[in-house]
Amino acid sequence: MKLATLCYVQKNGKTLMLHRVKKADDVHEGKWNGLGGKLETGESPEDCVIREIREEAGLKIRAPKLKGVLTFPDFAKSEDWYVFVFTASNFTGRLIDSPEGNLAWIPNRDLLKLNLWEGDKVFLPLLRRKGHFSGKFQYRGGRLLKYSVEKY
What we know:
The protein is mainly beta.
């Protein structure tokens, strides 16, 4: 089982996205994702998302907002992934040349036009609503087989 975070940094009607094109054997190769990564020993989800945004983008976020939790059964290397999804609009710093891929500020109206995982198109619109969500997305061979989403 893996625990991870995913964060959508937002400003002026745009969202910071990462085009995953730099790492060999990346399960996300060619996809656009929010930023984030695996929790390290002793970290809370908030600790992790703050660290990951600093490492991947060079930004120091403050007060990330938990929006939901995603479950990906049997996803990468046949492990279950549980992902805490955040948004952040309070940050300082300058973007770096990310080791994970190419960073770009994408207008929110264009997010769903990107090469995203199929499930991302389901939960990304939920980031704009009040409340929280929980989603379960089952993939096989990179294709979404089934999903369920609960809104709270």
